[in-house]
Structure prediction request, 1147 residues.
Amino acid sequence: MMRSRQALRSGVRPTASVCLLLLLGGCSDPLPPGALVIAQSPRLSASQTAMDALDIRYPRGSRVVIANTPQEAKDIRVLSLGLVAAGEPVVSYDGRRVVFTGKVAPGADWQIYEARLNGGRVRRLTSVPGGAMGPALLADGSLLFISPVPKPDPTASPARASALFAQPLGGPPRQLTFSSASIFDPTVLSDGRILFVSTQPSGASNGETGRALYTINNDGTEILAFTGQHDEPRSIQRPRQLDDGRIVFLAADAPATQASTAEFVLSSRPFRSRAALLPNSRARIRSVQLAGNGHLLLCAAPEATVGDSRGAFAVFLLHSATGDLGEPLMADPEWDSNEAVPASASRRPMGRLSNLDFSRTTGQLLCLDVNDTSYVSRDNQNPPRATRVRLFTQKPVGAQSALGEVEVQADGSFMAEVPADIPIGFDALDERGQVLRHQSCSIWVRPGENRSCLGCHEPHNHSPRNFRPLAVRVPVPKLIGEPTKLAQTVR
Amino acid sequence: MMTRRVLKWAGLVGLAGIAGALGHHFGGNAHIRRKLGQPPLANATCFNCHFVSTRRLPWAQPRPHHDSPAGLAVTPDGKRILIALDDRNEVAEADTTSRQVLRRAKASGTPYGLAMDPAGKRLYVACKSADRVLVLDAMTLEEVGSVTVGMGPVAVAFCQTSAGDRLVVANSMSDDISIVGVSPLKELSRLSAGREPFAVAATANGTRAFVANRLVGLASVKSLPESELTVVDPVAARVVKRESLTSAHLSEGVNLVAGRSWALTPIVKVRNQVPITQVANGWVMSSGFAVLDLASDEIVQLPLDEANDYFSDPSMVVSDPQGLRAFVASGGSDVITVVALDRVASWLQCATPSAKADAIYDLTLSSEYVTKRVPTGRNPRHLALSPDGGRLFVAERLDDSILVVDTTSLIPLGRIVLGDGGLEDPIRRGERVFTSSAYTFQHQFSCRSCHPDGHVDGLSYDFDGDGIGDNLLDNRSLQGVAGTGPFKWNGKNPSLEIQCGPRFAKVLMRTEPFPDQQLHDLTTFIKSLPPPRAVRRADGNLSPAEERGRTIFFATRTADGKEIPVSSRCVTCHAPPLYTVRLPFNVGTKGSYDTTEAFDTPHLLGVADTAPYLHDGRAQTLEEIWTLYSTNDSHGVTSYMNKIQLNDLVEFLKTL
Prediction:
């Protein structure tokens, strides 16, 4: 209003002034080719108490900057003005804005912020309890983020698992993942799916949890294992898709490790192609990002600085085929570079129309053959066969509650209607009620989703045989009552 | 004065409009009820029955023609390539070195498939719409003979046999194979094939020919679909074996591998029996090729796709003279896939029987033998190799060009340009959308994957929009669909724009809808598709049986004089000229999982070629509609008919 009055006083009509402002904004100098958005941390920051995992990765003073000429370390402009710490920059597909994680005060929650690359004020995009981290962008511009931000101790059991949310432009956030495991580091693949890291349910006797990559659609449907479920080392971070379809990620022995090696899998056979991105390098790497034209941007500390636990992480431009780090594109003795992203437009991923029906509170599960499992050789003529399947959830958190049991049809198929948006696990039971195979609460269905699978721990990346499952010919068992406490089972 | 006059006319028009509306409401509805013999089950207007003309429909209008390359044949010296231009009714000749078109010759009747004799003297041209094989002098391209074959010939193979030279011709519309003697030029025999034979290859000694059939055979929609690889003895002119490709179809090519006892044919591995709850992981279909080992008579289906990327609509396969590599054209993905055949052989040698049986389901297996994906122009369909195997020629059908690839380096050498691509033509642009898998999740399939050439694939699918259940829906032809809306079997999509837009995106593409311009082009293309060609006598008149059937179709009384209720007369719902009034009716076919008992009335133009029938495809033939399913006069009154009368009715329907 004040601005309008001033405009009127100065003889300029409000609409004209708005147009003028827009025009000026649109006519601002375009960014030079090669400009980078970089998340930096001060190498000599004052010690602070880490409240959560991001405080360790981005200590106070961390910032997001744009470097118009990356070779000149001083030629930078800070984008995260007004924030005490910031990181995890993601440039929008049109190359005009950047979203990143930041906090306004040392004791405040981390939230997602936005800034225009050609200047302007920082704008907060999220306001969620427990904080938000790991921003990514869907094809339609919706913001993806993780919430809550986990606590620094990776072994501590969180009050609630970190989940993935999508927030459309101008709309409220909607939760997309409902597993009992924590979700991290989402990124959007070119086919429109969201790839993310998930802690894996504890299967080890020492209670350790590993991490692996999973995918979902942009509405939270069709969670699928992507890779890393049975691999070592146990921690996977920051997956990104390369031009050639490879998925590169950071791997470390422990989740809290800040610097890691870079590895990749082929999307053509993600479970059988894991390899080092830089097989001849001992550099510690904090991020790998696609830079276009077959190039990668790496934030890495070369071998010479190993032993300096804090850093000298610089930005390197690497051709994905050569695998040689060479000279850094940008290095600053006072700052560690954590992430570097091209400040330019990039190819928009595929979008997707959702089939969800939010008037419903349930979804359906169809398993084609519960006895189709990679744990039993297909040449085994007499494998133990499951005759029933028990479905369970986690209610309250950490405790298993049974949703009910369903009969397995003669062909191994079963169907069930289950409550939507809760974690669901399975026990395949033999005729004596003994558990043949167990799957913890790692999947869910969305309202109105029809979710199907081939089997129970079936071989990955297999397509179904063509047959009419018997389960679709009988009424669907409805397991939609209140879960009951699950008795101890024999495995 | 002027104002008063305008007001007066406006008032009169307004009154007329109100009167018309009231008249329609009170009189029109009664008229509709009277004409249908029952209240309409959907909103009906005058335009359901009146003012309908096929002459005004898009497919009846003139359309631009393009230089779309179809069949290819390379001369024995490798210097020239002959190209069938079916949309131009021409055959083009080009220099393979300079990649210049040397000349074009007229070849009327939609020339599609080509074959050349080993001496390079004669070119044999399968002319799809003329039902004949033309013989051209390969040097002058002048016609030196022709022979009538079955309906819709699309492929021809030349073979030298102990009994003389033979042609083996795949007749796609009459579902048979013509065995033709070359001298004299005469059809010797016509053998029953599978459904829609589409490609032919013959052994060098002419003892065997292999015919790939595009569609699955007619069988219960709840049984596993099977297409056929027909093995023919060209000398004895008989079928010696019918190899079955289970749950595989759309084979548009077949190739015999030198030095190995293999026949290769590309396939689409279909999963129509599984509820379509997702498309990820090849849940709907995937692409591959079948290896028929002629020595062991074993067929193994192998994937061409990858775990997170698909190479849709494999259409043609060729292999080099050394038998080391095969090249498969993926028409939907614009890619030539290079397959190392020695790696295939190694894998097959080590694989257990169960591994072979499961191979097609392993989406990571292609990494074992696929060595390269060569990008091409739009819609690669036909392939040919130079005699030495050094150059691969790829017909980029919707770019009007032939891509020439060096098979050693696998680098494109250049293109033979036949036309400008026709991008000014919205129908051509729409066909490019129709045949492209770029819009579907992970490029899994194109519109063409279920509607080859806009037609049927002969399958029924279980969509999950109404939940997961035993609820199949027959895949309807898009040929002749213009003006027959609403669409879908439940008649809920008023236009093709809605049918092909958001609905298709949600149910099948699992991506975002086509952009507006592409959607407009796509529907323009679909509307331009004429109905399937019907079986008619050369003089255009009906045969006596067809004439009797016509009388039955339009009958108001049964043979013994009883009046047929209006609602049960064929012509009430299937009124000419489209043979549909575009309203839903209950014909007693509601299944236990169907959410409605009223189904859209399909048009009957070209109905003989659109099996199976009824909304779930339960009727394999037109006869079965009344002999197996609607036996209680729920789908017209037919119980009075004897066998001959029903046959007559069916004969008439086949002429539509």
